[in-house]
Amino acid sequence: MDEKVKGPASYFPSIEKKYGKPIDHWMKALEQVAGLKHMEQVKFLQTEHEMGQGHANAIVHVFRANNPQ
Prior knowledge:
Helix content is 62%, strand content 0%. It is an all-alpha fold. The protein has one domain. The longest helix has 14 residues. The radius of gyration is 12 Å and the shape is globular. The mean pLDDT is 93.
């Protein structure tokens, strides 16, 4: 029985579909701004990659959980 993905990662399939790039692409993009605060990283995805707030926030949340500062 497959467990349903919960939390921010539940947005990943729609992010991949909407922006046409795998999640790994966005995680690598965030490496450029790894030293910034959460909302600064969200703004980076919004301004540099034209990503919506909710999608950017979900990716940043998972990025930061996997890359503690």
